[in-house]
Amino acid sequence: MNKIHSIINFKKLFILLVIILNVEDLQAQKLSDSTRSIWTNENNSDSLRFKSISNYYYKYTYAQPDSVIAITNYHYALAKSKKSTKEMATALNERSYAYYIKGDLNKSTDILHQSIDLFKTINDPKNLAVIQSNLGNIYLEQKEYLKAFNSFNESLITIRQENLKTSEARLLAKIGDIYNKLDELDLAMDYYNDSEEICIAREITKKNQIGLIYLKKSEIYFKKELLDLSIEYAEKADEELKKSNNKSNRSECYLLLAKSYNKLGKNKKALNYLDKSLGLTKEINNQSKIIEALILKSYFTLESNPIEAKKQAEKIVKLLKKETSNEIKANLYNLLYTCYKKSKQTGLALSMYEKYNVYKDTVQLEKNKLLIIKETIRNDYENRLINKNIINEKEKAIIRVKYEYRIYTMIALTIFIFIISTYIIRIKNITNRKKLDSLLAKINLLKHQSNVLIDTKKFKLNRKKIELTINKKLNETDWNILLILLKNPEATNKEISEQAFLSIDGIGSALRRMYIYFDVKETNYKKVSLIKNAIEICNLSKTI
Q1: 6: part of which helix (H) or strand (E)?
Q2: How far is CA 58 from each of CA 50, 71, 94, 172, 359, rounded to the nearest angstrom?
Q3: Nearest to 79 by CA among 28, 29, 128, 114
Q4: Fewer Cβ neighbours under 10 Å: the N or C end of the chain?
């Protein structure tokens, strides 16, 4: 009877695997038959089957996160059928990291907490340390740097107790990432160097560690504007990451190469690398990175082809989500403001400028808050120097005094930052108001100019010329509306309906249609812009 139940369970699991592979992610079908046969073969030991699944996870997480998610569903189902809490927790951890690679941080966090709960039930400190590290990765992406720092250090204590050098090298690099994000570039480089030393000494090559270190060093050199070194290390990183087909981090290599070549004035080469980065990012479906690359591409093409840059930027807006970072939103709306300003679409430019300033101020406040975090985290670095015995006793005493002093200055610094931030925002609001007033003046000028043209009674609209230009046939309603607006561009829909003997709804529908015909982009004074465009069409030439 047990054997029958076992066969039934196996069939259920096999059917589940087939469904997952065919419905959730077709890429998983590319998996070799030999590998699949290991974990689907019930005659193999449970440990061998679980190990085979985990090996697939390690091999394909960066390249095919969707496939990994599919396989971890099978992993979890198999573990549950075997009543293995450890493997269930492992499967959840693997699935969480795949979502992390895809950029879905909320889903990654939810699944990770489920894994933590399971590991706690079996009292597994080693795997909890791994989970703690993964949680630190998410905090790092969310810019919760103090939480990330604490998570990495908690994990590091256990990792060192277990003498897991590969994990130690990875965690040191992650702490370096925090310093990198805080623009403490020299401190970040110190951690990257320590991580690299461990990798070289222990010949650690798996999990892309040495490639990731080269990538981060490239980023540091870029920030320092040492572009030749940045390019050198980005290329070295790419060579290492190719070995495991790490698409996620290779896309970052190409992004850095694109930025470096752009700064060197080699725009064609920059765009080539940017397209490579975008291609890989789309393959792993990381929406945040896709948006970042698309914004950068629009900036690269802004000077040479402003019309195309504007089209690209308008498409990017549709990709924005609630969880998209304020920094990305600020960059995008600043891009759109620049595009609309160049195309003299002052109403839209005004709207984008307002949005840009909202997100820019939010980003600035976030940066101000980082000053406190930087001081807190810097203490760790100085204590690290003491423990490494690389400074003399006099210098140690100075550092200790500085440490005690910082404790007392933290509160004062917090108050100071609050006051300064408030002042900065107030000044910026005044400045922004002036800029907004300037843009409003441009809109009023547009309105005035239109009225001047319209008040010239000798002028007549040329219906045939208009229809040829817009490639649309105007009906009598459309034409009557244009004639009414010619006399009074500020006429309300009600006033137009009374003169045209049509319903207000009919007038509204006709106007919306003509806004499309005449490519009216203004958010304010649409009727003014409509009749202005009609006049400009008639002024293009004397002949049809």
Answers
A1: helix 2-19
A2: 13, 12, 9, 20, 38
A3: 114
A4: N
Cβ distance 212 to 252 under 8 Å? no
Cα distance between residue 100 and residue 281, in whole Å = 13
Residue 272: Cβ within 10 Å count? 15
Mean pLDDT of the chain: 78
Determine the length of the chain.
544
Could you tell me the two tokens for 27? 């890429």
Residue 321: burial class (beta carbons within 10 Å; 0-12, 13-18, 19+): exposed
Q: Which residue bears the tokens 């300037």?
A: 438
The Cα 301–Cα 299 span in angstroms is 5
Q: How far apart are CA 281 and CA 248, in angstroms?
A: 7
Q: Distance (Å, rounded) from C-alpha 515 to C-alpha 513?
A: 6
- pLDDT tier, 213 (very low <50, low <70, confident <90, very high otherwise): very high
Q: What is the mean pLDDT of residues 31-53?
A: 69
Q: How confident is the model at residue 452 (pLDDT cuts 50, 70, 90)?
A: very low
In the 3-class helix/strand/coil scheme, how is 70-132 assigned residue by residue? HHHHHHHHHHHHCCCHHHHHHHHHHHHHHHHHHCCHHHHHHHHHHHHHHHHHCCCHHHHHHHH
Q: How far is CA 452 from CA 448, 456, 458, in A?
A: 6, 7, 12
For 27, other C-beta atoms within 10 Å of its C-beta total 17
**pLDDT per position as a tens digit, 351-389:** 888 888 888 888 877 777 777 777 667 666 556 555 555
> Which of 501, 470, 467 lies closest to 484 in space, CA to CA?
501
Name the H helices within 142-208. 145-161, 165-181, 185-201
Distance CA 90, CA 128 (A): 10
d(CA 496, CA 113): 62
Per-residue b/e over 5-15, b at no fewer than 16 CB within 10 Å? eeeeeeeebee
Taking 3-state DSSP, the helix, strand and coil percentages for the chain, each rounded to the nearest 5, stand at 80, 0, 20
pLDDT tens string 228-240 = 999 999 999 999 8
- Comparing 314 with 525, the larger pLDDT belongs to 314
12/82 Cα distance (integer angstroms): 13
Q: Which two tokens stand for residue 285?
A: 């479906």
